[in-house]
Queue: 4 jobs
Job 1
Amino acid sequence: MREFVFEQSQTIEAPIETVFAFFSNPGNLSTITPPWLDFKIETPQPIDMRQGLSIDYTLRIHGIPLKWQSEITSWDPPHSFVDEQRKGPYRCWIHEHRFESLGDATRIGDRVRYAVPGGVIVQRLFVARDIDKIFAYRKQKLYEIFSGDPNGSHQNR
């Protein structure tokens, strides 16, 4: 099984405690997920984030309805957490979220290790583009949310 890696970082003009609190609320995930994925959390809310927690979702990828379950496998507030797919469309999905305090700002880092059915061909034709679009949307939404700017005009640092 060949694994691929996606990495992205951005700086948000908000303290680490504020940014981590936002990410600690699974309900906010739908806010930063593109609407074309029709993402919904199925686990009853409110959800108390912690290591060992499983969260169930439904979404659509290219119109195909899917169920996804992730487990929080590492929880280190306000510095990091890791979610791993337990059930879903990928052979492997491990998403590490990192938060670094820069005084009144926070650097958010994402590192995703994943493997897909169909390997390199499916990765190149579909998955890499989808992941790029999803994380570009997320980056834009985070700028809008934390800057109060509906156009998200902050520049990536």
Job 2
Amino acid sequence: MKLNESMLLVTGMSGAGKTEAMKALEDLGFFCIDNLPPPLLKELSNLPALSPEQGHSIAVAMDVRGRAMFNELHAAIDRLRDDGVAYQILFLDCADDVLVRRYSETRRSHPVREGHSLFEKIAAERCLLAEMRESANLVFDTTHTKAHELKAQLGHLILDRDVTLDLRVDVMSFGFKYGVPLDADLMFDVRFLTNPHYDLDLRPQTGLDAPVADYVFAQPEALKFVEDVVRLLERLTPLYAASGKARLTVAIGCTGGQHRSVAITERLAHRLGQHFNNVVPVHRDMRKNITLKK
């Protein structure tokens, strides 16, 4: 299945991880709707703003929480097929003993009313979902899957690609005199480089200007620093993505956030963009010194 080609219907055993799966799918670019009543499924497919032609992928979670309305799910899916709406069914399954443990840990009540013990309720739910599981295009057993692993595994299963490269990497320049960025995951100090501020011609410019960038990278330490950080992030970024992280902020600091950190940030973002799909340079303090001088 490829993104934007069909609607994804997510169902399965209660406690198998549908909530976490929907969070992961949202990170993967799906417009997610949880616990939709089946009678509304056809209406959802008719919304022009959510059509595949508009570039939207839709994931809809429907399960026995819908109580009596869940019995209408098969009829709702039949209507989708009759109307020519492309869809895929993802069924999340899990071993009974793990489901019992998860419910015992969360202390939530099971949505199935039949039976007294959790094992009896789970058995009743399996009967209710047997036909749906049989008709599913994709069955994903979460017995041995940790929550932070879901996104990577669903990316492989549904999109057939390595989504760890999709982690958004913000490379942020900043000035230490304005305080360190509290949202930084990794922080580097480039004040070891000679400061263009002391060149009167360069002082009013920023690291985005070629003369400042040339000044910074005329220093061999600047080029080596960028390559060292690139190698470090090549190793670490896939690990952050595999842990479930959706965004990584790499902060590059100099004194005022106008010259050295800006030039380094731009070069670093360009180099990282050769390896990862979503790299964004951000300059937090670049204009502050210029504004204060006016």
Job 3
Amino acid sequence: MKESLKALLDLLDLEQIENDIFRGRTSDERRQRVFGGQVAAQALVAAGRTVPVNRPAERSSSVEWRGAGAGGRSVHSLHAYFIRPGDPLVPIVYTVDRVRDGRSFTTRRVVAVQHGKAIFTLSASFQIVEDGPAHQAAMPDAPAPETLPDGLTRMTPLFGEVAAREFVTRRPFDIRHATPLSWEAAKDPALVTSESKVWLRVDGELPDDPLLHVCLMTYASDMTLLDTVLLNHGLTWGDKQTMGASLDHAMWFHRPFRADDWLLYYQDTPFAGGARGLARGQVFTRSGELVVSVMQEGLIRVTGD
């Protein structure tokens, strides 16, 4: 298992400090703020660990990984707002409000706090397994991940081998782009496009717990989504004129999946304006099953040359 993946799994193993109160470490990377995907994933871990094991009315203090096995309830959606930048130098405290434990659905609200102030809120809903009508969008065409260059090969011409290797080593995911990178489109206007296709999987084997796979996909969903907005305008992070941040994030989990298998993350951007950009994503298994849908709005400011 890649060291960066081990570090991420450690970050997601929250410490329970009181009933419905958890503490999560921040990464030791030298960032200006905590990565939004990390906060969202940790908050979902906190919510999932309060889902009753047996009957909905029961409360549990157990903190082991629990997903679909938690009373047969798996997370089917989350809605989150990024309120303040997270401080990467101090832990984050997550407080969970047990909004409802019903016969079919369990609802949780999580507030992430640093320095006495809320930096992030998340609402998540868990559902028992039920049958019903079924349909899905078709999986878009994309080359197989094995035919695409890995991150180091793709990044080296752009940033040099040393910087590219450092960038790829820090990532706990193997990410392979089937469409242009924003840095490539910024150099060549012919590559500008409004959609992005990315194959991804964690760089190592995982245990079977469904909640862990969902939380890792929550983390990964924030890694490339807003890049799609920049790709549509020939902009890129680090071009000294573009700045941005995630504002809100929503996900719907349709079917079980494994984050250590290849997943196609298809992303596009239906709108940008008012210093905000909207991006949406669909995640498919290699067999073509739609397993996750994502929406995110982000702040996109261009200051000029």
Job 4
Amino acid sequence: MKTTPLPYRRQSRHTGWIAASLMTLMMTSMWGGIWPGMTTAALAQTGAQTGAQTLRVEADQQLEWRRDDQQYIARGNAVLTTPEMTLKADTITADYTNSPESTNSDAQNSKNRITSIIATGEADITYLDAQGLETHGQAKTIHYDRQADILTLSGLPAAGVIRVTREGNITEARDSITYHRATGIITNIGNTATKFTDGRQIFGDKAVTTTNPDDGKIVQITITGNARILHPDANGNIQEATGDHAVYDAASDTVTVTGHVILTEAENILKGSKAVMKIGEGTSVLSSDGDNNRVSGQFVLE
């Protein structure tokens, strides 16, 4: 990081308030589609209906503009807001670069482009997508890499778990949650949990969720390592399946569990190499792997 004489730093912090206004213009297009369901086109349409999009930055302590480092920093209960999004953290840092067509060295007059935003210290993001659905995320750090169009939540906040909530459905992880907007893929690492409003829960070491980029709806969830699925039936009984891997297919509402599968409900226990749980039909089928590993079951009769 380059150092500058103290008088210049004082001036740069003062002009940071001007920089905050410039951020309003430079960052307008950045937030389109950060969460599932919000597309750039939808954001542009909103702008056409309500006027120019604006971004506001506030902080208790300081707004600093580091021209040589091409960086803006807001410190102390920093809050960054747009009509669709609110991002909060102890510190919010935005990196920018001069656009290729810009030759003016004055950052106030150049056409700058935000490349990255990092919110650190009890970071919290709330986003309203094009369908009017709210997504809420919590982590120690939230990083948006605009170049790659990837949002990453990492580090345990005070709540003790990284969490994203949408329509009452919850996804959690210990290490990180990463969302790649272009592919619609969400990757959870470390003690992952996906909890649905109907009571279903899916756990594992790693969860890769494929969503439809247009509406954010889940297409598939793939669990790797220590897969565990809990499913309540119509009578309130909980059916549990464990295995090495699991795949949930939303279209067929089916969970396929493989590798050392154990299926339990109350005192009934079934074991096999593969289980296909047809959630909508309320049926489960266990099978062997064909290598002399037989399917077995233990049932308790009244």
